[in-house]
Task: structure prediction
Amino acid sequence: MKEKGVSACIVPGTDPHASEYMAEHWTEMSWITGFLGETGTAVITLDKALLWTDSRYYLQAEAELQGTTVELMRESDIDCPSIPEWLCSAIGNRESEIGKVAVNAEMYSVNGYRDLKATLEDGGLELVSMDLISPLWTEGRPAIPTSLLYAYEEQYTGESVESKLHRVRQALQERHCDALVLSALDEIGWLLNIRGKDVDYTPCLISYVVVEKEKCTIFVAPNKVDDAAYAYLKRVGVAIADYEQVFDYLQHIDADGIMYDGGKVNEALYEAINPSISRRVNVSPSPVLKMQSVKNEVELQGERIAMRKDAVALTKFLYWLENEFGGNEAKSEKQEHTEISLAQKLGEFRAMGENYTDDSFCTIAGWKGNGAIVHYHATPEACATIEGEGVLLLDSGGQYLDGTTDITRTIWIGEAANIPAAVKRDYTLVLKGHIALACARFPKGTRGNQLDVLARQFMWAEGITYGHGTGHGVGHFMGCHEGPQNIRTDNNPNPLQVGNICSDEPGIYRTNEYGIRIENLIAVREAKGLGAYTTGEAYLEFETLTLCPYDTHMIDLNRMTEQEIAWINAYHEWVYAEVAPLLSEEEAAFLKAKCQPLPLTH
Result:
């Protein structure tokens, strides 16, 4: 920094493709701080090092930054300054300071770069594009992955590449553009019906794509394209170029109007487009993002199939778990289990499912206080042993060729009679909110933020809340987190549409005690059986996709209405009918016991 005349360097936890899960090659923020959370940004000045992250990762960051010189900045707290605010206060408007802030333009979206630049300039600072990490991180830096590109067959996608490209070109025409630049790996995978193994948990391939009126080009490392992949791309009319050639290609592209998603395409790509030569650019949300979020019937049916396979794995795991921790005194020596060994065991059961390829994210097995860390990740160095009685939070998911799953169940391990009243209260408040959202009916055009309060209402009534969203979009054999739709307090202009898949996952977290979260996946569909008094507008509702019983021992029935109990009973009846035929006799009997109807009067 001194050599380059830079006062500060910002190192975001991102990659050039705005990915949620990154290839290790780009984990620069983690390399320089030691913080392994999914969301965080480091700021390095000439005499300080700081890390901004949100409330989901406070406890994790405290543990991982302990013993370092990196200071934790709690960005969800009201009194925490933003990164630009802090920089302007710390080094801005000082004649003795150089006043330059460096960022790697490939790691910042166009929108993010512009906002940062404007804010810093207001504080007397200059933003400069400069990669300060690559020259330093040379020893042991992982290479960019080289997994093979493969075709994702139309029997799973329900739509051809030709059809998808036609729809994209129609969107381009409507916006008077000649080309679309895509950098988001999930959008590329959806558009070209391709998948890969370049990134953990998400079957995508590191590449760029440029769609033009008469041409579509994928920019990908040549060693990722074998003969079969080459033949497939040729058959669907996609040209191939080297990954690094995208910058030169955009500099010389013959297009008057170029569309890109300013929230995803990185600043370096934008600078390559070079709009200064009178070339028009259209900073629109990617049309592909909305297209892929609306699942067709083939994709939805695939998700239902994947859910049944996932339910079999979860039931086998819960049966095994009860046998391990169910107080079986006949066992003279019980094997010691940890959070990691439980996650591994669940993974083994999932891997038995047909068309299973991977987990959809790193399984969260949080025992007691660790469950209060929202995105907890057990490591061999910091991993709890499952012993005694307590609350286990288990958040997991699988990737199947049929679809992507994501489910959270909270389980009491120990004697049911020993469940504390406070745990039952919290579990029931979460469950009530979970059911309220699942049962929602709403007019077409409703946004997720308008429904979020349904899941929080019972907690808010008792002065409790949670710091994460209630629901995220989910991809189809792709990213477990997908936009543009979501269900959270933040305003989102995108209404929920038929075919969207979201999670439904309220929670309560008691620091150092326990965490409770309950999650199903739900799909938006047209409402059924509204009755004779509706006003004629189109109404929507949710179809619950996930199949897995709740831990009914943790429910305080005195807090439940008859309607809520009836919903649980109907859900459990459906779970048993769908899953029991796929289990062994012993496992089916176990599931039947877990799905016994609750009394409507209590």
Observations:
- The chain has three domains: 8-129, 150-292, 297-594.
- The radius of gyration is 25 Å.
